[in-house]
């Protein structure tokens, strides 16, 4: 089975650090603190609405791999046009919600822009959700079934990868093979509180389960020495490979 062109080649490349801070100045400081110890910087909604989009472009231009976590979900035409613009920004990854029409509209925008280097990820079920949350949102569940349906459709659509909880990575690897990358938030080193995450796993366990990229935020960004914390995670990833 073919390996995805988006697959990481080193342990360092597998670590994604969210720049979940309220200002660009704080994001710049976190990048300086962790430069050389992180494979990908993730820019989410908090920073996007505080000048983060231009900052993302600047980081990409300086040689950093950037994950623009926009989680798009809208009418087809809007998604297609939005992805066309993201494809011009030099990003390495971006997200859309893993709904059938949304994923296909996103891929249409990517093809129209002619940028094969942007990996579009389908977000299956947010890792902050548990079974009760899914039922409250109107799904009959269980979560594992919803994730599987969305992952299979992402594969059929030709997506670059999916985002799922690490607890689902092993089953997703069986379904997706090596054709799509698996990105997993909800990673917590041993002894670190889960916070607002519900379906969590340690870095080593997530890699063993089949995750390609690990999104790890507060255990690194809130550490006394963020670079040392990032290096420790990369070492744990390397040992698990």
Automatic annotation (TrEMBL):
Listed Pfam families: OMPdecase
Domain of life assignment: Bacteria
Keyword tags: Decarboxylase, Lyase, Pyrimidine biosynthesis
Gene Ontology annotations for the cellular component aspect, listed alphabetically: cytosol
UniProt pathway: Pyrimidine metabolism; UMP biosynthesis via de novo pathway; UMP from orotate: step 2/2
A GO term for molecular function: orotidine-5'-phosphate decarboxylase activity
Cited SMART domains: OMPdecase
EC number, as in UniProt: 4.1.1.23
Example GO BP: 'de novo' UMP biosynthetic process
List of catalytic residues: 69, 71, 74
Keyword Cell division among record annotations: no
Reactions listed under catalytic activity: orotidine 5'-phosphate + H(+) = UMP + CO2
Domain Orotidine 5'-phosphate decarboxylase: 14-233
Binding site for substrate: 20, 42, 69-78, 127, 188, 197, 217-218
Subunit structure, interactors included: Homodimer.
Functional description taken from the UniProt entry: Catalyzes the decarboxylation of orotidine 5'-monophosphate (OMP) to uridine 5'-monophosphate (UMP).
Family the entry assigns: Belongs to the OMP decarboxylase family. Type 1 subfamily.
Protein name, as recorded: Orotidine 5'-phosphate decarboxylase
Organism: Roseibium alexandrii (strain DSM 17067 / NCIMB 14079 / DFL-11) (Labrenzia alexandrii)
